[in-house]
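Cross-check.
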Amino acid sequence: MNSNKKSPIRRSLPLLLLQAREAVMDHFRPLLREHGVSEQQWRVIRALRETGSMEMGRLADICSLHGPSLTGMLTRMEQAGWVARYRMSDDQRKSFVELTPAADVLFEQVRGGMEQRYLVIETKLGKAKLAQLYEMLDEVLEKLNVDDASEHDERGDAKETGRARAAKRSA
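Predicted model, tokenized:
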């Protein structure tokens, strides 16, 4: 077989994106494990660190987590002392999450190692290619994410998207 040809399975966009994610995460997992933090917990910490307290539904969306998974994980993060949950006095239906000072300390402990790993990735890919990759991924997200609860099929009929179904399940 010609080694220059890619096998058809290798040209599957979802599979390539998943394999690329795994290759990237292989650089970060050891550091997270060293600090006793899962990938999903780190996503939550990063999101809350950047935005401050947040409603749980929005946090689940930003971190690409299903609502029930986030709920269980937040319980464990509360037990670890990393997050606090609260409800607004004027609307008890929504739960909000915020980082605790212990999570801020954890973030600072992990940040240096994260920055080093990003530098390794930048060195391997090159600064220009990495910037191009970020731009392309931003464009993919912008053009392929559907903000509405539905999109149209080939006949023009509205159909429910996977994102809308996931939102319904976690509501």
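The two ends are 50 Å apart (CA to CA). The beta strands are 54-55, 83-88, 91-99, 150-152, 158-160. Passed to J.P. for a second look.
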